[in-house]
Amino acid sequence: MPKASDIAYYLLRPKQVRSIIQWKVWHQPVHERNPDKEEPTLRQCFTYLDLTSRSFSAVIQELHPELLVPVCLFYLVLRGLDTIEDDMTIPLERKEPLLRNFRANMKQDGWTFDGSGPDEKDRELLVHFDCVIAEYKKVKPEYREIIDDITQRMADGMADYANNAEHSVNGVDTVKDYERYCHYVAGLVGEGLTRLFVKSELANPALLERPHLHESMGQFLQQVNIIRDIREDLEDKRRFWPKEVWSKYVTNFEDLLKPENEEKALHCSSEMVLIALSRADQCLFYLAGLKEQSVFNFCAIPQAMAIATLELCFRNPDLFKRNIKISKGDACKLMWESTQNVRLVYDVFRRYVRYIHEKNEPSDPHYMQISIACGRIEQFIETIFPSQQPPEQSSALSREQEDSAQRESREAMWDVFYMFLAVFGVLLVITALMTGVAYLFGARFGAVADALRARRQAALAGVSSAKAEATQVVQEHGEL
Amino acid sequence: MSAPEFSKNIGHILVVGGCGFLGHHIVDMLVGRHSESTISVLDLRTNSNRNPSPQVSYHEGDITDECAMGALFAKLKPDIVIHTASPHAMAKDDVLYKVNVDGTKALLKAAQENAVKAFVYTSSASVVFNWDTGLINADERWPIIAGKKQKEYYTSTKAWAEVAVLEANRKPASFLTCAIRPAGIFGEGDVQTLPNIVVIGQRGSARYQLGPNENLFDFTYVKNIAHGHLLAANALVATHAMAPTVPLDSEKVDGEAFFITNDSPVYFWDFMRTVWKHAGVQIPMKKVWAFSPEFSLLVASLSEWYAWFKGQKPALTRERAKYSYMTRYYSVDKARLRLGYKPLVGLEEGIKRGVADVLETQKQEAEKKSQ
């Protein structure tokens, strides 16, 4: 039973309701998995996928059959790794080898882990990790190689991060550290997925020649999440916003939440938004390299959600007061728009970039830089889908040319005039000649005029007599 | 970012209009970059904006005087000519034509006859702009608009001069030319863009906005434009040195025009507000009144009539109003690829420096008045 407040909310927002209905009714998955043909262990894997991922489960399950299982297992493996990394109840000396050996454990039939803290939401996945291992063994070796590689690098990155006591006490230090962290937890995922897409020939191989593009895909999503989750993370005693940024505005990170620091906190958040926004054009570039629809949807939906979330966070004091997220109606609209084609996703980005621009405030220290970042995204979209083409050359290239063109057009005008004059002149002369000849031969123009007048009167009279005749005819026929 | 390495001596450089707004920045940059080159400056008057370096010599002269130009070139024998001289855009039509077109032709002739290697001409990004339709990411494929279709006579004469310069390329084969088209120049020494915007803000008009402010616009800091000119001169000299080999069509600089901007189009009123912000005038967005384009035109017409009635210069003209809600930005890909151009100074830093200069000038003028 929906809550009364929800009903009131949607009654006042018919557009939101429309978007939700539109998505639920009209969205057709490009591919659908067929659970009946799946092994029980695989079905179990998909159950964990549903349990562990709110946002990715649906898009993964609509992926091309070639990638459906590899990507699902890739996600579960990384989720397992993440669960260990996140777990504050596992002591560091135990956590580090667990992370570094994770890949080795994946090769061990029946490996499970039940050492997660009782509050860890995804502990069940690790407790039953044997089903993931069983299915992972069946994945094509070329895909497994990619997943193995990424898993190991991510695990090492996480272990290094956890090892760095500085981080666990003070959070991330510099912007560089921040980007390094995002690289390990998200940039690498972008790389792994891109390699899977290219290997399965569902994406343009050129994407691998431009590694900064898939790096930006991951960075953008991760950075947006870090911005949005500031409060939630802080409650869990975690700080991902780099000190290099926040220390410009407050002395202690927690001070960002204090009401008296609202303006400073907004300035700080807009610097974070600016860092994320500078990745957006590269994400758009990446999306243009995807060929297959389900892969496109899989990549485009999270990006569209991210730009909308970034807009929501920008200059929003609620960011520091409560957990914020985009409305369900907006989310459905975004999903609808990002499952069609690149152009529509670009339109989504342009729309949200303009919203960000509208919220921009001159007193913000990043006012001009935000404006430049928005302009850059708009300009990038124009380079891919130009809305203007060079017009035809039509100007004179010098004053002499201009003058002679003008002279020519003036001459041309007179030419036409003379031509008409000549034609009418000739006609006039011929008419006069003919009339003169006719007169000489004895034509009586006066009589012609009289005859004409007489005929007109006759015609007028004829109309009335014709009417009378017609009536008569009808009557005659009537009698027959 | 550090600028690429430049050779200390690229030959004798003549900067025409080197005491002007852009010209003196070019001279300063040349002095800093090519410390062993001889630099000559030619201008109508040479008492302002002088560079104290002994490298630079100053010469007064009128570029429309063909004989004088021939004599001066024969005496100086420059290798490179950078021609930035131009009258104020509001000058009379015949003056504009005489200086921009005839003057440029006289310089070309003198250069061709005196074995100049490279000739860089300062054109304008407006040569492809008709003041009616916006420009969205326009590049060098856009044709020039001059004569009848060009509403501003100044721009027509700039376009015609540019055509003459580019046509003179490789006539003779050792004479190389190119044109730089800067968009929306501002910076220290600017007497038009920034001073006007600052005054508008100081008069309390910063709370009005014409149009919805969705129009991206290119403004370019003067030193970046100077940098573009120097890169072009260097590229022409390099092309000259590789003769008789001729560069590929996709790489050539000679005979070509290049847009130069800050490579960061911004929403028109965001630029204005940043200028005001650095001039100490800040209005929160909720207090800003945004007029629709139609209403803006109406206000501008009223302002024109009022000014006509009072016999003054109007505070706002329809042209200006239109300009402020029109999209006008360019792609600098060609300059990036062929000249290696990249702006040296960001937009906001440029604004900061330019506004500081405007405020300083205002202060000096106020002091003069009070004395």
UniProtKB/TrEMBL annotation, chain A:
<dbReference type="GO" id="GO:0045338">
    <property type="term" value="P:farnesyl diphosphate metabolic process"/>
</dbReference>
<keyword id="KW-0472">Membrane</keyword>
<dbReference type="InterPro" id="IPR044844">
    <property type="entry name" value="Trans_IPPS_euk-type"/>
</dbReference>
<keyword id="KW-0808">Transferase</keyword>
<dbReference type="InterPro" id="IPR019845">
    <property type="entry name" value="Squalene/phytoene_synthase_CS"/>
</dbReference>
<keyword id="KW-0756">Sterol biosynthesis</keyword>
<dbReference type="GO" id="GO:0055056">
    <property type="term" value="F:D-glucose transmembrane transporter activity"/>
</dbReference>
<comment type="similarity">
    <text>Belongs to the phytoene/squalene synthase family.</text>
</comment>
<dbReference type="Pfam" id="PF00494">
    <property type="entry name" value="SQS_PSY"/>
</dbReference>
<keyword id="KW-0511">Multifunctional enzyme</keyword>
<dbReference type="InterPro" id="IPR002060">
    <property type="entry name" value="Squ/phyt_synthse"/>
</dbReference>
<dbReference type="GO" id="GO:0051996">
    <property type="term" value="F:squalene synthase [NAD(P)H] activity"/>
</dbReference>
<comment type="function">
    <text>Catalyzes the condensation of 2 farnesyl pyrophosphate (FPP) moieties to form squalene.</text>
</comment>
<dbReference type="GO" id="GO:0006696">
    <property type="term" value="P:ergosterol biosynthetic process"/>
</dbReference>
<keyword id="KW-0812">Transmembrane</keyword>
<keyword id="KW-1207">Sterol metabolism</keyword>
<keyword id="KW-0444">Lipid biosynthesis</keyword>
<dbReference type="InterPro" id="IPR033904">
    <property type="entry name" value="Trans_IPPS_HH"/>
</dbReference>
<dbReference type="InterPro" id="IPR006449">
    <property type="entry name" value="Squal_synth-like"/>
</dbReference>
<keyword id="KW-1133">Transmembrane helix</keyword>
<dbReference type="InterPro" id="IPR008949">
    <property type="entry name" value="Isoprenoid_synthase_dom_sf"/>
</dbReference>
<keyword id="KW-0443">Lipid metabolism</keyword>
UniProtKB/TrEMBL annotation, chain B:
<dbReference type="InterPro" id="IPR002225">
    <property type="entry name" value="3Beta_OHSteriod_DH/Estase"/>
</dbReference>
<dbReference type="Pfam" id="PF01073">
    <property type="entry name" value="3Beta_HSD"/>
</dbReference>
<dbReference type="GO" id="GO:0006696">
    <property type="term" value="P:ergosterol biosynthetic process"/>
</dbReference>
<keyword id="KW-0520">NAD</keyword>
<keyword id="KW-0472">Membrane</keyword>
<dbReference type="GO" id="GO:0000252">
    <property type="term" value="F:3-beta-hydroxysteroid dehydrogenase [NAD(P)+]/C4-decarboxylase activity"/>
</dbReference>
<keyword id="KW-0444">Lipid biosynthesis</keyword>
<keyword id="KW-0560">Oxidoreductase</keyword>
<dbReference type="InterPro" id="IPR036291">
    <property type="entry name" value="NAD(P)-bd_dom_sf"/>
</dbReference>
<keyword id="KW-0256">Endoplasmic reticulum</keyword>
<keyword id="KW-0443">Lipid metabolism</keyword>
<keyword id="KW-0413">Isomerase</keyword>
<feature type="domain" description="3-beta hydroxysteroid dehydrogenase/isomerase">
    <location>
        <begin position="14"/>
        <end position="284"/>
    </location>
</feature>
<comment type="similarity">
    <text>Belongs to the 3-beta-HSD family.</text>
</comment>
<keyword id="KW-0752">Steroid biosynthesis</keyword>
<dbReference type="GO" id="GO:0016853">
    <property type="term" value="F:isomerase activity"/>
</dbReference>
<comment type="subunit">
    <text>Heterotetramer of ERG25, ERG26, ERG27 and ERG28. ERG28 acts as a scaffold to tether ERG27 and other 4,4-demethylation-related enzymes, forming a demethylation enzyme complex, in the endoplasmic reticulum.</text>
</comment>
<protein>
    <recommendedName>
        <fullName>Sterol-4-alpha-carboxylate 3-dehydrogenase ERG26, decarboxylating</fullName>
    </recommendedName>
</protein>
<dbReference type="GO" id="GO:0005789">
    <property type="term" value="C:endoplasmic reticulum membrane"/>
</dbReference>
<dbReference type="InterPro" id="IPR050177">
    <property type="entry name" value="Lipid_A_modif_metabolic_enz"/>
</dbReference>
